[in-house]
Amino acid sequence: MFHLVCGIIGFCTLSKTPLAQSPGSVLFKGLKRLEYRGYDSAGVAGVYQGKLIVLKGKGKLDELEEKIRLSSVRGYTVIGHTRWATHGIPNDVNAHPQTDCRNEIAVVHNGIIQNYRELRQFLVERGHVFESDTDTEVIPHLVEEFYREFNDLYTAFKQAIKMLKGSYAIAMVSTIEPDKIFFARKDSPLVIGLGNGYNFVASDIPAFLEYTNRVIIVYDDEIGYITSTNVFLENIGSGVVDWSKRVRVVEWSIEDASKSGYPHYMLKEIMEQPRALRDTLYGLLSDVVVDEAVSILLNSRKVFITAAGTSFHASLYYSLLSSILLGKPVIPFIASEYMVYSPIASSGDTLIVVSQSGETIDSLMALRAFKKKGVRVIAVSNVVDSAIPRESDVALYTRAGPEIGVAATKTFTTQVLLLTFLALKQGSSIGRFSESEYREYIGLLKKVPEFSREVLASTEDIVKELAKWLSRKKSIYYLSRGIGLPIAMEGALKLKEIAYIHAESYPAGESKHGPIALVEKDFPVLFVIPPIDYLEELLLGNIQEMKARGATIICVLSEKSNLIDQCHYPIKTPHTHWLLTPFTHTIPLQLLAYYTAVVKGLDPDKPRNLAKTVTVE
Ligand code: M6R
């Protein structure tokens, strides 16, 4: 599973290789190859004549090349990075590489250090001075600290890595041992490229594929270093690894490789959800800003939530959760309809604006209209420091990583996870549930990444088959009730936008008030069935109404549901608590839309008439 947050590249070369002619240009080209991952800042470091050279800044690679000439970095040991901000806004100081107090150690990092606050505190108490707001900066300072103690750089690096909690791919250079790049990996991709007189480390193969196709995939909990002619690899717990048996020759093109072997970004992003959900949750668990948002919400008179498209479905889900879990009404509205809602808002109210891009114009207009009324605004976004978070009082971030496919997938499930966490925190603050109930709920959320992994594995094949049948249909209904409804709406939107099939979503009980008139023999009706007894009973009635008219029934439901036999095509998901329904039940719908588009020969990454970010009203 590949981690689309930040890009790392580094190499060590002998002075006689073609790379040594202009190491900076090779590094810059490698960074360009990682551009597709998305980033907001970039930087490079090289060890040259005993000194560390660091060039970095906010902006796109070409802009930075013009401003600070990234490619001018010197040395035969160089590292580079494209940063997608998670901790600390995108600016020059927060760009990687991050360095130690003496400017002898430079580190680039992909992932999230969950315990960076404690580590920073520990280091500040020992006199280290920090410059950035990043979680990454603790790493060079830790190495510096342990080097003082052990006087051996690799031991210091290893010791530092042992202190880290979270996910990381790390590359480090230092003037202390100028011919090595030290690396470590946990839950974030890292590969080694083996050349002739040079070796690479990178977060993805395309970064160096032009120079070598012989690769070693670094596994979790592995650590080591490369030189221009050697690789040292060990498992941090069990010791030295004989990597020679793990060398693979890659036969993909660069384009294939940037999708990590997936045919489309959309599929890659669907498959990345376990990682995206885990990073989002662990990011939230260590984010004090959540408490600020909770306190604003608890002191609000009215709460509104707004968004467009998929983000609106996540918003609707939150408003339902707020009623069910907190007994507190939240008013959801579609962002472009803000003019109907802003007149009833006043100071003392709060607006939550949900936008993965943070730039959607409708959502931004709604935000501005509400701000004018003195309303406080909480942003939920996937892009640090984008317009919506910037103009909000408080910003909460999902950590899905950049989403390249136009259809929102991992950003939806991570938004729902964030909003569920927010609701749970609110509930615990107002004593709506006991401390132990709260802990149980959080324990459930911690299982979300694993459940999503299971759903991906258990539903993909059946969905692929179903897609062949669905691809021949012109129209389909997506029906559900209660918390299942936003999921049904999201499933219908996905199918519409990438498979160009008319898909309409309705509350199941409402279908008899009109939509059922279209149902005839073989008309597809998809039911989203949450694992809640009374909803199952009600939905059984709706399934029977549809079947009586000849409809073909597709169901997404728990493997333990009593309704399995009622469905022509049951898509069974692992049984769990209803709170996890958006994760277990949405993923098969994303896959269904994806495979239906593929069967129809469409490009799911670039649906017609749509843009990833809609910045016109
Ligand atoms: O960036 P945002 O979350 O604000 O985008 C909102 C919608 O434009 C977006 O969700 C759109 O509906 C997607 N294409 C859905 O897959």
Structure characterization notes:
This protein is of the alpha/beta class. The protein has three domains: about 5-255, Glutamine Phosphoribosylpyrophosphate, subunit 1, domain 1 (4-Layer Sandwich); about 260-445, Rossmann fold, CATH 3.40.50.10490; about 460-610, Glucose-6-phosphate isomerase like protein, domain 1 (Rossmann fold, 3-Layer(aba) Sandwich), CATH 3.40.50.10490. It has 19 helices and 25 strands. An eight-stranded antiparallel β-sheet has the order 3-2-4-1-10-9-11-15, covered by helices on one side. The chain has a seven-stranded antiparallel β-sheet with strand order 5-6-7-8-12-13-14. It has a five-stranded parallel β-sheet with strand order 17-16-18-19-20, with helices on both faces. Strand 9 (about 190-195) and strand 10 form a beta hairpin. The longest helix has 23 residues, at about 450-470. It is globular. The relative contact order is 0.09. The model has no long low-confidence stretch (mean pLDDT about 95). The site of 5-amino-5-deoxy-1-O-phosphono-D-mannitol has 17 residues, from helix 10 and helix 17.
What's the short story on this structure?
The chain has 617 residues and is an alpha/beta fold.
Radius of gyration of CA atoms, rounded to a whole number = 25 Å
The average pLDDT score comes to 93
How many separate structural domains?
3
Straight-line N-to-C gap = 37 Å
Structural class: alpha/beta
The helicity comes to 25-40%
CATH class membership of the largest domain: Alpha Beta
Uncertain residue segments: none
CATH fold label of the largest domain: Glutamine Phosphoribosylpyrophosphate, subunit 1, domain 1
Q: What's the number of extended β-strand segments?
A: 25
